[in-house]
Amino acid sequence: MKTQTILITGGIVVNDSGMGYADLLIENEKVKAQALPGTFKDLHVDVSIDATDKFVLPGLIDPHVHFNSPFMGSKTIHDYDNGTIAAAFGGITTIIDFSTQPKGGSLLENLNQKEEEAHGKAYIDWSMHGIILDTDPKALAEIPQLIDKGVPTYKCFTTYRHADRMTDDQGMLRILETTARYGGMLMVHCEDDAIIEYHLNQELAAKHYDSIYHARSRPASAENEAIKRVIALMRECTAPVYIVHTSTAESVDIIEEARQAGLPIHSETCTHYLALTEEALKLENGYYFICSPPLRTQRDIDYLWRAAADGRIEVVSSDDAGMPSQERIKLGKGRFDKITNGMPGIEPRLSIMFTEGYGKGKISLPRLVALTSTNPAKLFGMYPDKGNLFPGADADLVIYNPKGKWTMRASNLHMNDDFCPFEGWKINGHVETVISRGQFVIKNGELVGKPGHGKRVIRKLLDAV
Ligand SMILES: [Zn+2]
């Protein structure tokens, strides 16, 4: 039975613009009102929740996850069933996955396939970015159709030449031109392929196969140089660009300088770049920590937190892309260059941001909300429906109980993986309740949501992007 009205009392409601004690009234799928505590005490509601001294946040949006993403005969660990469950336990109410254009094939057709993958499975709302591999006229002609279908954002890569995934400068300019004409936003994975290939060949020639050489073969300079190149191309043909998963301290300044010069450039980092250093690659199971760009240094972490706090970094995503353990061991043990790149991270994101960021005084809670919910909603065309708890917004929210500590382990999470990058980390507080468009998904720590409740979000970019 559908719950019609929910009243949440006594909580500290956090939006990106501020926080304070407020009662929230939910009617059908929407936030009906946010008012001073006690305002609705005589109102008859279907369900009343006491959230005294707990934080009530807009449901998190993870704008960068890879579900059912194929690789070497295997695929990423999360699908729309287990992936959206793990997301919900992590306080997330909307994910944006990627639909990859088959080389020489149609992105629009792949999008339909993704809809079938999600159909009847998702516990929370979901949406899709495209991944563009071809830049011939036929492929580019699909971009305006994608935008019309609510997919105004699409990614390309400056690397993975050998895997046939790289977009060269000419291709990038063609996509920028099409993007400028039709009003989308290009997302770019920035690592310079030539620099990486050079270092990779050097390491392999020296028989350096341990996981740490993954980081050595993909140095910070490769990332910084690729970002500079994209900015140079944006100067020739200006269109909105979002740099995914920045990991270096220098990238912050490079992007900020371009922004100050008036270019419409945006950037995200990921939970793991704010928490883990390349030292993890030296562990016995270091191959589990292989991701691209690679984990960096404490200096990078410190600088990325500062940029996340002051707004130079606008979004923190998970880039969730775990692979089955047996595949990792089979491919990657003792051969860093053979393993798929990516880690699971959809569920730990809020816990890590809350504990490492807010808990250690690096960011405020409104800033945490901006980075993980409001800014993704604004940048990816879901605001004001999502990313806030003001009247009229979708009733997507998470109640976070800040009391108590627990130890994060793969075994006490819900991700479809026996590995967690933050194994053994002490976490402050926990996700208690998650509501998606007025329906409980998690209630007092228990999954009560239904598969198929999640709907596809048709996105349209704001002019401000
Ligand atoms: Zn990714």
CATH class identity of the domain at 60-379: Alpha Beta
Question: How many β-strands, per DSSP?
Answer: 21
Largest beta-sheet details: 8 strands, parallel
Bound molecules: zinc ion
- Strand percentage, roughly? 15-25%
Number of distinct helices? 13
General form: globular
Spatial sequence of strands, sheet with the most strands: 8-11-12-13-14-15-16-17
Euclidean distance between termini CA atoms: 39 Å
Low-pLDDT segments: none
CATH fold-level name of the domain at 60-379: TIM Barrel
Q: Give Rg in angstroms.
A: 21 Å
Proportion of residues in helical segments: 25-40%
Average pLDDT works out at 95
CATH architecture of the domain at 60-379: Alpha-Beta Barrel
CATH homologous superfamily placement of the domain at 60-379: Metal-dependent hydrolases
Quickly give the structural class: alpha/beta
Quick structural gist:
By secondary structure, this protein is of the alpha/beta class. The chain has helices at residues 82-89, 107-118, 137-140, 142-148, 169-182, 193-205, 212-217, 220-236, 249-260, 298-310, 325-332, 348-358, 365-379; strands at residues 5-9, 12-15, 18-21, 23-27, 30-35, 47-50, 55-58, 60-62, 70-71, 74-75, 92-100, 125-131, 153-157, 185-189, 241-243, 265-270, 315-317, 397-407, 426-436, 439-443, 446-447. Zinc ion binds next to loops.
Structural commentary:
The chain is an alpha/beta fold. It has a domain at 60-379: TIM Barrel (Alpha-Beta Barrel). It has helices spanning 82-89, 107-118, 137-140, 142-148, 169-182, 193-205, 212-217, 220-236, 249-260, 298-310, 325-332, 348-358, 365-379, and strands spanning 5-9, 12-15, 18-21, 23-27, 30-35, 47-50, 55-58, 60-62, 70-71, 74-75, 92-100, 125-131, 153-157, 185-189, 241-243, 265-270, 315-317, 397-407, 426-436, 439-443, 446-447. The strands form four sheets. An eight-stranded parallel sheet has the order 8-11-12-13-14-15-16-17. The protein starts with a strand and ends in an 18-residue tail after the last strand.
